[in-house]
Amino acid sequence: MKHTHLTEKIIGCALEVHRTLGPGLLESAYEECLYYELQNAGLKATRQVPVPIIYKDIQLDYGYRLDLLVEDKVVVELKAVEDLHEVHEAQILTYMKFARKEVGLLINFNVKLLKHGIKRYVL
Predict the structure, then answer these.
(1) Please, are residues 71 and 49 in contact by the beta-carbon 8 Å criterion?
(2) Facing residues of 70 across strands?
(3) Pair type for strands 74-79 and 103-108
(4) CB 117 within 8 A of CB 107
């Protein structure tokens, strides 16, 4: 599987954040802490990466942002919601398409066990 070693490291960092903080916080708090853990793990991570919309071969700077981009390879979209829905999946898949990245992780921190809040996507 593409970038499996990298996604495993990202998930390990997310597990550490969830073990420490638990569920119930805002998405921004998890983003800040996960960014810290990724850097501590020696991974290059960028926060709030602008993603233009591609419409009819035109690039429109609209204001969408990736929560995290790790090693310029994996899109990480964070949530702190009761349940993940199809719209969340559509969001990460669209971000991956527009950012031209093949692998993405959708992580919902508002769960009792984080393994139930992680989904991996490959285009």
Answers:
(1) no
(2) 45, 74
(3) parallel
(4) yes
Tokens matching residue 106? 């959708």
CA–CA separation, 93 and 102 (whole Å) = 9
Q: Could you give the CA distance from residue 106 to residue 88 in angstroms, rounded to a whole number?
A: 8
Q: Residue 113 has which token pair?
A: 């066990």
- The Cα-based distances of 44 to 48, 71, 72, 84 in angstroms read 14, 5, 8, 27
Distance CA 88, CA 17 (A): 21
Q: Is the domain defined by 4-122 classed in CATH 2.60.40?
A: no
Question: What global pTM score does this model have?
Answer: 0.92
Mean pLDDT in runs of 10 for the chain (123 residues)?
Answer: 90 98 96 98 96 84 88 97 95 93 97 96 94
For the chain, domain boundaries: 4-122
